[in-house]
């Protein structure tokens, strides 16, 4: 398998962490989708990463689709429960974390995209996305409470998704003091960073 992505993308990191936890072999191909000479559209018509290329040259994209598929490839470290309430809970955690990352990406693009003049940037849009990021992080902290992991007592895709979101927010928006506001999330992230899968994929 070949994974096309960037080291800074939190969605790519989610896939890489799952790959590591599942002990799957793959080739990592760095791609800058914002470059004028990017070739990502030949694999993903949406021009986004991550994109997983299988042995038969078939492409799979969207991190949620990819990690669901990867979890079926090996019995090692099952990360997504079987269909039912527990599975829905894990996928809801993933949706929450992805939503935080989506809002953060929109915030950053509005504030920094070089092809938009300063006068064209919308502070109201930036504020709206920032509010989503902060509300999402607060919801993560409330949902985690004093539990050792987001969904029960073992690592799952819930924790991987939340960890990737928090790591990226800390990387791109260091002014957001999510650790100070939510110590339980800081404790969870520190625990995740002890795992090679997280330590080796930090943005």
TrEMBL record:
Its EC number is 2.5.1.18. The keyword Glycosyltransferase does not apply. One of its GO terms (molecular function) is glutathione transferase activity. Residues 83-203 form the GST C-terminal domain. InterPro entries: Glutathione-S-Trfase_C-like, Glutathione-S-Trfase_C_sf, Glutathione_S-Trfase, Glutathione_S-Trfase_N, GST_Omega/HSP26, Thioredoxin-like_sf. Residues 1-78 form the GST N-terminal domain. Keywords: Transferase. This is Glutathione S-transferase. It comes from Variovorax soli.
């Amino acid at each position: 398998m070949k994974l096309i992505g960037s080291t800074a993308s939190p969605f790519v990191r989610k896939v890489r962490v799952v790959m590591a936890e599942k002990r799957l072999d793959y080739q990592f191909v760095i791609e800058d989708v914002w470059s004028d000479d990017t070739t990502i559209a030949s694999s993903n018509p949406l021009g986004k990463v991550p994109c997983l290329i299988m042995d038969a040259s078939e492409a799979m994209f969207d991190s949620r689709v990819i990690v669901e598929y990867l979890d079926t490839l090996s019995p090692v470290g099952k990360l997504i429960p079987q269909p039912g309430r527990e599975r829905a809970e894990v996928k809801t955690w993933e949706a929450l974390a992805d939503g935080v990352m989506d809002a953060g990406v929109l915030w950053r693009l509005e504030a920094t995209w070089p092809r938009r003049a300063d006068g064209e940037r919308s502070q109201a849009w930036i504020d709206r996305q920032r509010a989503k990021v902060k509300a999402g992080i607060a919801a993560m902290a409330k949902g985690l409470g004093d539990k050792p992991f987001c969904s029960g007592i073992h690592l799952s895709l819930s924790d991987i998704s939340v960890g990737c979101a928090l790591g990226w927010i800390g990387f791109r928006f260091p002014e957001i003091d999510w650790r100070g506001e939510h110590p339980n999330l800081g404790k969870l992230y520190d625990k995740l960073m002890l795992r090679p899968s997280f330590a080796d994929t930090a943005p």
